[in-house]
Design brief:
single chain; alpha/beta; Serine Threonine Protein Phosphatase 5, Tetratricopeptide repeat; 3 domains; 63% helix
């Protein structure tokens, strides 16, 4: 679905706002060309309309041109906003608001995003080994909502987990910054980093043999941290990185410290106490 952004006049108000609100919520924005806050909030609302891909209508009323509508709704200051649902005004907002305020106001009236249900089905299919079915479902999810970047992150992760690293990397590179900066996006980028670390060092057996011969082998310690992260053992990975920091904190332009900080960011949401403990250990070694 495409974003629905409409300029409203006295003539089309009934159809575009009232009648359409019987199907999807309509956010009415009263604005004027001379209004600074109006110009600031407009691109925010247009982006929200694009992100939600047709799940609500953004109806813009220029109060300089549509004076009858402005008078009808007794608009005294702008920007001013009203949300229509089922033919009635259900929410009102005044002044330039953060995007979260509009998301909160719209949320009770939004229909479910069909792409999310397809995502869940794709996860189930992938977990059952039905790789082609999972990819097909994510393709359908992308068509249902092209702006749901979680769909593309899921696809990227499935490519990665099934060994299609080049496809995964190409897709990740094309994702918008918003997707890359999300928690899932950061996790994926870290997976690629640790995969690269491992590829440069060699097999796990080679790393273990090198550490058996020299427990202070910096390259082997760094490679071990990559293997441990890829095998879902972050605490042992952090231990390996702390050991590397103690052996040579400047190795690879401070790789131990930089990588530890990246791991902290990845784990912070799900393992805050573990991160807190290892941050303290790193700080104790630094000072």
């Amino acid at each position: 679905m495409q974003a629905m952004i409409i300029d409203i006049t006295q003539e089309n108000f009934e159809q575009m706002v009232v009648q359409n609100s019987m199907h999807v919520p309509v956010l009415v924005d009263f604005w004027a060309p001379w209004c600074g806050p109006c110009k600031q909030i407009m691109p925010v609302l247009e982006k929200l309309a694009n992100d939600l891909a047709g799940r609500f209508i953004l109806a813009k009323i220029n109060t300089e041109e549509q004076t009858e509508l402005a008078n009808q709704f007794q608009i005294r200051s702008i920007p001013s906003f009203k949300i229509y649902h089922q033919g009635q005004i259900v929410e009102e907002l005044q002044g330039a608001q953060p995007v979260s305020a509009f998301q909160t106001a719209l949320q009770p009236y939004l229909k479910a995003d069909p792409s999310e249900e397809l995502r869940l089905q794709a996860h189930d299919a992938f977990a059952q080994g039905q790789y082609d079915q999972a990819i097909q479902l994510l393709g359908e999810a992308s068509k249902a909502n092209p702006n749901n970047f979680r769909v593309h992150l899921d696809l990227c992760k499935m490519y990665f987990q099934s060994g299609h690293l080049e496809q995964a990397q190409n897709l990740l590179d094309k994702l918008p910054d918003e997707a890359k900066e999300s928690q899932d996006g950061k996790s994926l980028m870290a997976l690629f980093k640790f995969t690269k670390i491992v590829a440069e060092v060699g097999s796990l057996e080679e790393i273990q043999a090198r550490l058996a011969a020299d427990q202070n082998d910096c390259e082997a310690l760094y490679g071990l941290s990559g293997y441990l992260m890829l095998n879902n053992n972050p605490e042992s990975a952090m231990q390996a990185l702390l050991k590397l920091f103690m052996v040579d904190r400047s190795y690879g332009d401070n790789l131990a410290q930089k990588t530890l900080i990246e791991v902290f960011e990845l784990l912070q949401q799900d393992h805050p106490e573990l991160v807190k403990a290892y941050r303290r250990k790193l700080q104790n070694l630094m000072f």
